[in-house]
Design brief:
99 residues; 0% strand; single chain; 3 helices
């Protein structure tokens, strides 16, 4: 018995497959971000003698990595159209056919 939704003889919608792959990758990225950054903040809280410092050091990796995570989210959930290269190819093909 297979756990796959896609049966071997059935054609797969490549665009939906790519969207699903990006979303699964984002969820893994989010989980890793949360675990690692939680660990960094815990280390800082345990080891830091000056808790009252203006900017705790874990803020920098949290913010920097957060920007990458936000871009990953945008790619997976907001800009899930066909790859830009394929879009350009289709535009050029349409333009050629119109001539």
């Amino acid at each position: 018995m297979s756990n796959s939704i896609h049966s071997p003889g059935e054609p797969r919608d490549e665009e939906l497959w790519n969207i699903a792959r990006k979303r699964a990758a984002f969820r893994r990225h989010l989980f890793t971000y949360l675990v690692v950054n939680s660990f960094l903040w815990i280390i800082w809280a345990i080891r830091s003698g000056d808790i009252d410092s203006v900017v705790p050091w874990p803020v920098w990796p949290t913010l920097g990595w957060g920007v990458g995570l936000a871009l990953n989210y945008a790619d997976a959930y907001m800009f899930h159209r066909v790859d830009s290269v394929e879009q350009e190819y289709r535009k050029l093909l349409k333009k050629k056919q119109d001539q």
